[in-house]
Amino acid sequence: MIEIMGESADDLVAARASGKITAEDYSEVWVPALQKAIDAHGKIRALLYMDETFDGWELGAMWEDAKFGLSRMDEFEKVALVGAPEWVDKIVELTGHLTSITFKSFPTGSLDEALGWLR
């Protein structure tokens, strides 16, 4: 499940991921929130907080994430991930070298630090 967090404001979209992320989570919650911020502000900052119950992505969710991210890459300024699995950290590090987006991964328990970095 993905839910938009209260810390979201203006060009910052923050979301909490728990359990298993589905394609519907992306298409009904995450992507519309990102699109709304992009429409209003042009470039945005995004945070995905994977809480202690996070159990990964369904294949359809990974596809939705890649599809949206690749098509809108120029509209992201910074992206922070909190509590991501190690393999995701490696992908984020590689993606950061291939794009103009500034990515940063934070360990579990570093939500406030990640929000501060984004602001």
Which labels suit this protein?
five-stranded mixed beta sheet, 4 helices, alpha/beta
Which structural class matches the secondary elements? alpha/beta
| Total strand segments | 5
Q: Which architecture per CATH? A: 2-Layer Sandwich
Shape: globular
Tally of separate helices: 4
Spatial strand order of the main sheet = 1-2-3-4-5
CATH class: Alpha Beta
Give the distance, in angstroms, between the N- and C-terminal Cα atoms: 25 Å
The percentage helix is: 40-55%
SSE map:
Elements: E1 2-4, E2 12-17, H1 23-41, E3 44-50, H2 59-71, E4 76-82, H3 86-98, E5 102-106, H4 111-118
Parallel strand pairs: 2-3, 3-4, 4-5
Antiparallel strand pairs: 1-2
Question: Explain this structure to me?
Answer:
With 119 residues, the protein is an alpha/beta fold. 45% of the residues lie in helices and 24% in strands. Helix 2 (59-71) links the parallel strand 3 (44-50) and strand 4. The mean pLDDT is 88. Helix 1 (23-41) runs parallel beside helix 2 (59-71). It has a single domain (2-118), classed as Transcription Regulator spoIIAA, CATH 3.30.750. The longest helix is centred in the N-terminal third of the chain and has 19 residues, at 23-41.
Give the gist of this structure.
Helices cover 45% and strands 24% of the residues.
